[in-house]
Specification:
The chain is built from two helices and 28 strands. The chain is mainly beta. Strands 1-28-27-26 form a four-stranded antiparallel beta sheet. It has a four-stranded antiparallel beta sheet with strand order 2-3-4-5, with no helix packed on it. A four-stranded antiparallel beta sheet has the order 6-7-8-9, with no helix packed on it. Helix 1 packs across helix 2.
Length: about 400
């Protein structure tokens, strides 16, 4: 059974369930597994029982257009699973196949009414598709990496209504692309190498940055940066987004943990969090710690990370632990380092995670309410775990 709470009714539901929302915002409310959804094209003849091969790689949540959705990049059976989050547990709305000639979906990001996905194929190179989150129609579709180039776009960030930034892990580059307007399908400027950073921008002498992966948008007053994880160099650094939407040379390379994986930014832009799977910690960079700090409780192969800010200003941090099949949960007042709260056992090899406060939670026998919705991909079980808190 699903709780049919329509998104147009959510403001009235939230008002009527004010106490439930307040309870859901408590830093110590526990995570509850609401259901698991199998991932992959149900019409795939190779998707046999007992032989999963889909490998959901990445996930992002959209709330624009009335129905909240989870967009799941399916690596093994190239395409995107779109899940309906207006019901609990989530249900599949549709599977969108990859563009012809491309076999793997790598990364996904959502902003406003745009969901951007990167695709890869050994023979055909790399490709970007941007979907309308309301209608799920294709807004833009264009090639990026050349055939046989080895290009792999393992990170993407939607910057605004016309631009995305992608990281190419094998080419060691970061580049902006137009997905709308007269320049649709063209780069916003030259690709910037992460291995040839001018010494003037590297005062700490960290040297080349290898294997750029995850990327997020960070704003500092009027300035905007694409902040990139450089996995094989154990650091992050920022790429200024110029007024003409080209990228500038990277600045402020900052060391983090060993083998960094994913990055999350606190909504008021005070703090950046980076997972590192080789030394089992989260690096915190920003105003709430003096310089660089870390978290380490109940972390075992941390990969995916997501942060929600609730209506009371409490920040909630969720981490997918690939080696322990657990989600670790930290929480605390915004502006202070979060405290460890607990863990929840989930499906095998949890990898990517996305969270959004203000969505329906509470699969039966729990009563329906509004709270934090957490979606986790499982590489080993080819599924998505739907969690409420």
């Amino acid at each position: 059974m699903h709780h049919q709470i329509g998104m147009r009714l959510l403001p009235r539901v939230a008002l009527a369930l004010g106490l439930a929302v307040a309870a859901g915002a408590s830093a110590f409310a526990q995570l509850t597994l609401q259901g698991s959804i199998p991932i992959g094209d149900p019409n795939d003849p190779n998707n046999l029982p007992g032989a999963p091969r889909n490998e959901p790689r990445d996930v992002a949540i959209s709330t624009f257009g009335g129905i909240p959705k989870a967009w799941v990049a399916d690596y093994g059976h190239g395409g995107v699973d779109v899940l309906n989050l207006s019901v609990v547990p989530a249900t599949r709305l549709q599977f969108i196949p990859a563009p012809a000639g491309f076999t793997h979906a790598l990364a996904v990001d959502v902003k406003d009414n745009s969901a951007a996905v990167t695709y890869y194929d050994y023979l055909n190179g790399t490709h970007i598709v941007v979907y309308n989150v309301t209608s799920e129609a294709v807004l833009s579709s264009f090639d990026v990496g050349a055939p046989h180039s080895g290009s792999q776009l393992n990170g993407i960030a939607v910057i605004d209504s016309q631009m995305v930034v992608v990281t190419d892990t094998t080419a060691n580059t970061v580049q902006g692309w137009f997905y709308a307007g007269v320049n649709e399908g063209n780069p916003t400027g030259a690709a910037i190498s992460t291995i040839s950073n001018p010494a003037a921008n590297d005062p700490n002498g960290l040297g080349p940055g290898f294997a750029p992966t995850d990327v997020v948008l960070v704003t500092r007053n009027a300035a905007r940066f694409a902040v990139v994880v450089e996995r094989d160099s154990n650091r992050i650094e920022g790429f200024p987004i110029r007024p003409n939407l080209s990228l500038g040379n990277p600045v402020r390379p900052t060391p983090v943990g060993q083998h960094p994986e994913r990055i999350a930014v606190e909504p008021t832009r005070r703090t950046i969090y980076v997972t590192s799977s080789a030394d089992d910690k989260i690096t915190m960079i920003g105003a709430i710690v003096p310089g660089v700090g870390s978290l380490s409780t109940s972390l075992n192969g941390p990969v995916g990370i997501s942060l929600s800010l609730d209506v009371s200003g409490v920040a909630h941090l969720y981490i997918a632990n690939r080696n322990s099949r657990q989600v670790a949960y930290y929480s605390g007042p915004n502006g202070a380092p979060p405290s460890f709260v607990g863990v929840l056992n989930v499906s095998r090899a949890p990898t990517a995670i996305a969270s959004q406060f203000g969505l329906p939670i509470g699969a039966p026998p729990n009563p329906p309410s509004i709270g934090d919705r957490v979606i986790v991909t499982s590489l080993a079980d080819d599924s998505v775990d739907d969690i409420g808190r």
